[in-house]
Amino acid sequence: MLFNSFPFLIFFIVVYSLYLALNHKRQNRMLLVASYVFYGSWDWRFLSLIWISTILDYVCGAKIYGSNDLKIKKLFLFFSIFGNLTILGVFKYFNFFASSLQSLLAFFGVSVQPHFLSIILPIGISFYTFQTMSYTIDIYRNEMQPTKKFLDFSLFVAFFPQLVAGPIERAKNLIPQILKPRQIKEEDFLIGCRLILWGLFKKVVVADRLGIYVDAVYGNVYHHSSLTFVLATFFFAFQIYCDFSGYSSMARGLARLMGFHIMVNFRSPYFSKNVREFWHRWHISFSTWLRDYVYIPLGGSRGGSAKTNRNILTTMLLGGLWHGANWTFVIWGALHGFYIIVTRFIQEKLRFTINIYKQNSAFLKILNIAITFTIVLLTWVFFRAESLSQSAYILKSIFQFPVSIFLTGSLNCIVHGLAGIITVILFEYRARSNLEGDVLQFKPITLQWGVYYAIILSITLFGVYGGEQFIYFQF
User: Fold this and answer.
1) Among residues 224, 323, 336, 416, which one is catalytic?
2) Cα 34 vs. chain centroid, distance in angstroms?
3) C-alpha–C-alpha distance, residues 38 and 49, integer Å
4) Which of 143, 137, 123, 163 is nearest to 35 (CA)?
5) C-alpha to C-alpha distance for 255 and 248, rounded to whole angstroms
6) Is 261 known to be catalytic?
7) Which of 14, 68, 256, 376 has the largest CB neighbor count within 10 A?
8) Cβ atoms 139, 65 nearer than 8 A
9) Residue 117 CA to its chain's centroid (Å)
């Protein structure tokens, strides 16, 4: 069931009606059942993997906390990490590594025929795997105590609003909200509704409509001009942002309607002044997970510039690989790691620019935002292209000289896409300091309702209703 589908609307109406009628304990049990129904609607067989992860980390968490022997603690932490990564590795990366090994051996003249698995990638496996691993790691670090009730822990793992595409919630934040009775205030209800409405607008009006143009160009890369590739890549930058942040907004809104507060996952990332800042604003739950469970354990910024740069590059390479079993994602992560290293060098070695920056702050901020967006835009080519050869062809076409100004594609589609992008930029720039990401909050009340009607009318008239899946479901 997709958030932007009629079956989900019926599903949530039933779930929410029951939720309001039940007491706290029964609310949790009902939400657990509803979460399994929600996830099982894609393929009921995938539920077995969630159950394995749930049982594994529940047991390991209890064993880690209950032992005073450091060796025992490390053993069960190893079981948790190894078990989760094994599941993720088999279902997501086995064929990728087998194919890569085959190509590497072929380069040296060795011909092998590895066995490939005929399996479907379980939806959302990367998200709930990282979420459950953080639980046992936090217990090992003495940052939290294990959950005593297995069913409450199961709800933490399977909570349906953020199950399949995040945010990747920390147990320290979500489990206490599960254990305690929740109160739904009027503010929670209003913010929840606005988040859902804005998220739905970004998904069906902006992202899915941009996707029509992007798919047409990237689906047939050898028949387009440089200007077309520039526009398609520009459109994809906002397609993936509106698609993913739209999901996150709806997930937070659905949770808020039930009294849950889950973390903000995006803070206007395309207003970033450097790539380092971009990762403080983009997919925040994932970037902070990488920071806390990969970058810092590797050594963080301790040990000098060389080791710090190594840790940054390693972290971003793993971050790229997390997104998909393809070398295009590895290159994408490596490029972001390289640009973060360059940013750190500039910030640390060229401190004399601070005075110049203060004197020309407005101009330099705009310039930095434009440069950062351009860098991020070019890296999206690797993210969207199906192979490294396609990525190279597109980049070569973009930078060819003389530039071809011939533009392909429907003019109507281009106009609608640009209108959607401008709307998102204006709304999010206006609400850039809103900590809740509640961009539809206006005063006075007459303007507030005018905005509601305009958004609803836009969804009705310009929304794409083909049941388009969210992009990050494939990760």
Assistant:
1) 323
2) 23
3) 15
4) 163
5) 11
6) no
7) 256
8) yes
9) 27
